[in-house]
Design goal:
The complex is a heterodimer of chains A (about 450) and B (about 250). The longest helix of chain A is centred in the C-terminal third of the chain and has 23 residues. In chain A, the strands form 2 sheets. Chain A has a 9-stranded mixed β-sheet with strand order 1-2-4-3-7-8-9-10-11, sandwiched between helices. In chain A, strands 5-6 form a two-stranded antiparallel sheet. In chain A, helix 4 runs parallel beside helix 6. Chain A is of the alpha/beta class and about 450 residues long. Chain A starts with a helix and ends with a helix. Helices cover about 35% and strands about 10% of the residues of chain A. With about 250 residues, chain B is mostly helical. In chain B, about 60% of the residues lie in helices and about 0% in strands. The N terminus and C terminus of chain B are likely disordered. Classes of the chains: A alpha/beta (about 450), B mainly alpha (about 250).
Amino acid sequence: MTTILGVCNRLRAAGAALRSRGTPSPQLRARCLQGLFAGLLSLLQPLPAAAGYYQWDAVTLPLASGAACGNGTPYTFFVNRAWRAKDTVVVFEGGGACWDQASCEGQGLLSASNPEGVGRDYMRSSTNAGYGLVTPFISRLSVLERVRTQGWNMVYLPYCTGDVHVGSQQRTYADRDPLAPRIQHHHGLANVRAASSWVRDSFRTRHLMVTGFSAGAVGATATWPVLRGTLAPTGHATLLADSGPLFPAPTGADPAVYPSTPLHTRIREAWGLDTPQGIVPTVLAALPGFDVQDLGTVGAALALRYPQDRFGYLAFQADAVFSAFSYAGFDPALASAPDEAARRALLQTSWERDLAQWKQALAPYSNVSWHLPFYRDFAGSHCLTLVDFTGTGIEEVDLGDIKPFINNTLDRGAPMRNTETDRLSDLTRPLGDGLRRLLDLLKLFGIG
Amino acid sequence: MEPMSKGSRPQRPQAALRQVRQLRQLHPWGLRWRIGLGAAALALLTGFLWWGLSAGTSEPAAGPAPEVSSGRIADAADAGVGYRTTGESAAPSTADGLRTASASAGIAAEEMAAAAGLSPADLIQLRDELTSHPRSEAELQRVLAFLSFQRQWDRFDELRRSGASAATLQPLARELDAALAQRWENGEVSGAQALQLKALLLEHLLDDAQSRRLALGQWQAQAGIGTTLVSAQRPNTASPAQGAPR
């Protein structure tokens, strides 16, 4: 039956594509044909069993699919289905990034998480990806926050490739230890493709929400055409990208004007984004409005290509972690900063410049919202959807936290564009219960 | 495909067109014929498979579900060959056998369904969906137990947030606490969530902070929730005193 469901879903996706495109063109007919062949082919392939209700089931993808973790081990993701649920939330895990040997091996500040891969017992551990599993979007219980998607089917995509889920290249890093180099499989894009196919073949999706935090937010944004196209939701499709902005960064531009250009240049090369099988030529280049010389145009391109979808972007204006990733290894002034305060000030200046240009690029599109509070006294003001939503409000516009923003985005309300101007109140705002409890747990287990 | 917005750059059809032309060169017969033949073959195959499956059992759309009890998480070492979920299905029971098993546990299931907020009609539907599960009655009971736990948690949470008294909250907290280990054992909550739930419940069950810490540590060890300190190597760049979720 699962096989038949998979076939039906593939056919449905092909049919939906045809319906929405009006008069079939030769390309569309060819795509329909591809869908039919894929459906027939899937009858001959061993398809996955469906996951159980209300349990985290591990799905290990075959290496033949191209999916793999950074160390070459099979990629495993997790599914939690709800009885009678028709809607699906997909969560991209965050956890650093890497483009050298030490950071790909998980060593040092800002290194990539899960360098040894993701085991099938991943959800049993309490400490994955810096406790990122404690996000309300993968909880069936309202211990942290009550959110609408807690009754939906859930898909959790762990992060183990160091490439913000978008890479398509195997690299050998030997800069730290030439005698024992790290062979890094930057296979993030293949993981997303294969996981999307599994989900499509396993259950149908009416409304779809894709979310991610930090590196996961970058992945959720950049792979939107893959996931959204594969799952082909019959209802609303919503992106909620938390603290992983792809800022405008034209190739060759002056970093003083576009501070993220050096980072983008580095990752495009390291992760194979422009290789023939890379995300730029195979996914993003086809988007109207996407400039292959500027990854930062993806936000506008998605808004153009999917006008009926909603795109919600979250970030703190004082995010000290993503800004460090973006500029620390590239701006010589940061390395020579006389003290931490001066370094922080330089990071903040670049971050604010990037934020302003990002908002400007997204502003023309009526299906884009953003919510940018100033500061939260937790994790360097990085990520709004981790643990709980306390400290994510913008009180000057009567928003106590991000819940109204999330609901508005899901409900197709008028776009919300919230930027906090008060830069003092957040500095003294107390942490919520969930955050306090987590910090107690960290102390209990000897962290922090 | 959605209509392109005004001013958008046209898509690049050249590559797709080239593919179509190449297809036509390889296969001189028309696309329409191929679509028709493909659909007919698919319909035949689907009908055949449907008939074959229907003759064996009344399998629900959900397909085989994983096992219920402990040890659900398979060894990572066996991963890598083909798609797999954690559940390893045993031989499916016959429909008659399932009905017998259901009848013997019928009363308990109905009581559990009521506690979970399900109507008798809901229970029938859920049971029908689970008939193909190799341990369908146990799976039904597990699902009902979780839904009951979830409903009880919602009630506890509402009372807690509305400032209910300790006398009201404590009995509920005790019941939830007693059931939590099973939820964790069944893989219904992640390790991190289990610890969060336990910590919150203990706040309502033990007055002393030191006792709570001790109880939480003991419970974590007993439950076997892993605490490999991966993140400890990556302190937060901005506030080292705190954890480093990224």
